[in-house]
Amino acid sequence: MTIDKFLSFWSSHNTAIIEGLVAFIIVLALYIAYRGFFGKSDEASHDSEGRLDAAQLEKTLQKILENQGPGRLKAQFDSESALEGVEGLESSEAGSSPEMAAEVVQLKQALAESRKKAETLAVKAKEAEEKAAAAIAAGGSAGPITDDGMSAKEKEDFAAKIRDLEARLAEYEIISEDIADLSRY
């Protein structure tokens, strides 16, 4: 095929070629618009844009809660260790969405309230222990005294309080871990 034949073909069918290219461009634009509005967006573009998929976050939090069995949680609570996961939140909040920042602030407030409750419960438990010790010293115990100086009823009461405090502590630890996990996003 020579250039003369190509040029004569081009000039004789110029209108049909241009119409075909315009139709192809329109079809391509419609396809891209359809994919943009109705297509499933890929997660890599969301992560790079800083958006957060609420369903994915909920699944992640559910997995964390499932992985934490009651036997894995310790009864010792150190406020300094709870703050370790929250240290970098102020820097991560600057680049996140306003909803995420509001949720982090809300979780921080809940954690602070939880700490206050834990401290007051610890104080109340200590006061109850002191009252029990004073009652034992005064001879007014509520039943037969065992080897450790406590009656069976007092032991049951303290065991119930300890279980209650451990359950609350577990909730507070979950909240602090959720805040730490949210700081990663």
Summarize the structure in words:
With 185 residues, the chain is an all-alpha fold. 76% of the residues lie in helices and 0% in strands. It has 8 helices and no strands. The radius of gyration is 33 Å and the shape is rod-shaped. Residues 44-48, 71-87 and 89-94 have low confidence and may be disordered.
Distance between the termini: 61 Å
The H-and-E topology, N to C, reads as HHHHHHHH
Taking pLDDT < 50 over at least 5 consecutive residues as the criterion, the unreliable ranges are 44-48, 71-87, 89-94
Q: Main sheet?
A: none
Structural class computed from helices and strand pairing: mainly alpha
Radius of gyration from CA coordinates:
33 Å
Net shape: rod-shaped
Mean pLDDT score, rounded?
Answer: 76
Q: What amount of the residues lies in strands?
A: under 5%
Count the DSSP helices: 8
* Helical proportion, percent range: over 70%
Instruction: Give the strand tally.
Output: 0
